[in-house]
Amino acid sequence: MSFRTALTGLNAASADLGVISNNIANNNTTAFKMSRAEFGDIYSLSDLGTSTRRSIGTGVKLNAVTQIFKQGNLETTGNPLDLAIDGEGFFEVKQVASGAVKNAEGQLIYSRAGGFTIDNQGFIVNSRSERLQGFGTKEINGEISIDIGKPSDLQTDLSQNTPKETTIGSFGLNLNASLSLPEVPIDEFNVNDIRSYGFVSAMPIYDSLGSSYSATVYFAKATLPSISDSTVAPPVVGVAPEGTTSAWYTYFTVDGKNLDGTDLPTSGAMVPSAMLFFDTTGNMIGTAQGSIPAASAGPAVIDDTVAGQRTVTVQTIPADPSVPTPATFSTTTFTNSNSTSVVLRNIRPTKPDPDPSGLRAANDPINGANGGVIIKFDQTTQFGGSSSTNTVTQDGFSTGRLVGVDIGEDGTISGRYSNGQAKIFGQVFLSNFLSTSGLSPIGDTSWAQTSASGSVVRNPPGTSNVGLVRAGALELSNVELSEQLVKMISAQRNFQANAQVVSTSDQMTQTLLNMR
């Protein structure tokens, strides 16, 4: 009996040493979870299935080898596609290639090893070509967002980013309230004469093919606009909003030409694009747009019946009043707005036609989504400091290539493009189970779902019972080497003690055999 009991002890000590050696061997394996051997004693049973008070144990057996899902330390790698889970949960990956022979194609497996790369199709994969799973995206009204109900293979877009035409721009400026009127009269405005204006700023704009242009705006301080039946209309006509104390003319050019692509006048006045109105506190309170030819304008007839608009009808004066000429009239409607935006229409910058067949005209207009490019001045002020440009933004951009991928703590994956744009590709989710100890280890620091583990639950990182995703880091093995070495010594002593029992039993048996 003692031989068999000692033999179970030898086997148990050997199994314990095997578990310890496996832990030590995987001390540097990414996201490895150490195991422990769990043993139970063995008792001989009677015919009734119970032991008696005089029963002697018959040894030990290995009940289970349990993995300890304790958090490992995180090591910074600097690679943005290296992911570590800070907290509970697993990455979910799907085998779709022939790289991992152990797994059937399409099988979902779970791992905390987050060393990922991008393959030649843009999929995010690990070293075994298993594709990382996550939530896809959906587009609503041109905006891309995460589709929580759409688990899929996460894929980046390796193609060039589609260019976008400028539709909205914004200037954040301060116009010096202390400036006086320009030295050059308003009807002789010239962009090449710095005496014609008090300040200049610029922003880039883009057409539908991503070609870039420079939209430059010149600011000239103005007297408050007014018009009556007996006066000649100024270049821009507008009813100043109530509370207006000062106004500025704005002149827009694109690549040094008029908005329609024609050359700027060599002499004479440019037609202003709009007027900006300010109150006593220096805040902008409205705009006005519209123009009529002043040089040949006769008495003006004004129609103010439509709120926010002024329609001006002007009779053309013949060059020689003695020559009978049929009366001609020019009617223009000017829009006053309490908004802080102006609309630039029919922008036709000149660029070489990229299509040799001429299917796309070189002067294809930049009309934006609403038939014009909206220029906002909502962050423009007129204070006593020097004139300055604080911010310039616009929503157009040229084509670009993918230069990097960023992953946030919440698992959101976004691509960075060479044109400064970003695009959301999806979101990494984390999977968890009611019983992680019920998962079946399948090697490569991966596990498979079983009935003992319960159903998988997927959640975005940082929600429910899952942790956060740390990009640029990997989780290390949770093996405590010093602890394993102490356990190894204990297992060695157990093996030696059981071997000594075998030796002692042998001596006792030999003594019995030597009796005469």
Describe the secondary structure blueprint for this structure.
Elements lengths: L1 H24 L9 E9 L13 E11 L6 E3 L6 E4 L4 E5 L12 E4 L5 E2 L5 E2 L4 E11 L2 E11 L14 E7 L24 E8 L5 E11 L23 E9 L19 E5 L5 E6 L7 E7 L5 E8 L12 E9 L3 E4 L28 E4 L11 E7 L7 E6 L4 E6 L4 E7 L1 E3 L7 E4 L2 E3 L8 E3 L8 E4 L1 E3 L5 H33 L3
Helix pairs in contact: 1-2
Description:
The chain has helices spanning 2-25, 481-513; strands at residues 35-43, 57-67, 74-76, 83-86, 91-95, 108-111, 117-118, 124-125, 130-140, 143-153, 168-174, 199-206, 212-222, 246-254, 274-278, 284-289, 297-303, 309-316, 329-337, 341-344, 373-376, 388-394, 402-407, 412-417, 422-428, 430-432, 440-443, 446-448, 457-459, 468-471, 473-475. It has 2 helices and 31 strands. Helix 1 packs antiparallel against helix 2 (481-513). The strands form 8 sheets. Strands 5, 6, 9, 10, 23, 24, 25, 27 and 28 form a 9-stranded antiparallel sheet that branches. An 8-stranded antiparallel sheet has the order 12-13-14-15-16-19-18-17, with no helix packed on it. 11% of the residues lie in helices and 36% in strands. The chain folds into 3 domains: 2-69 and 479-513, no CATH class; 76-161 and 401-475, no CATH class; 168-394, Tick-borne Encephalitis virus Glycoprotein, domain 1, CATH 2.60.98. With 516 residues, the chain is mainly β. Residues 99-104, 227-237, 292-304, 315-321 and 323-327 have low confidence and may be disordered.
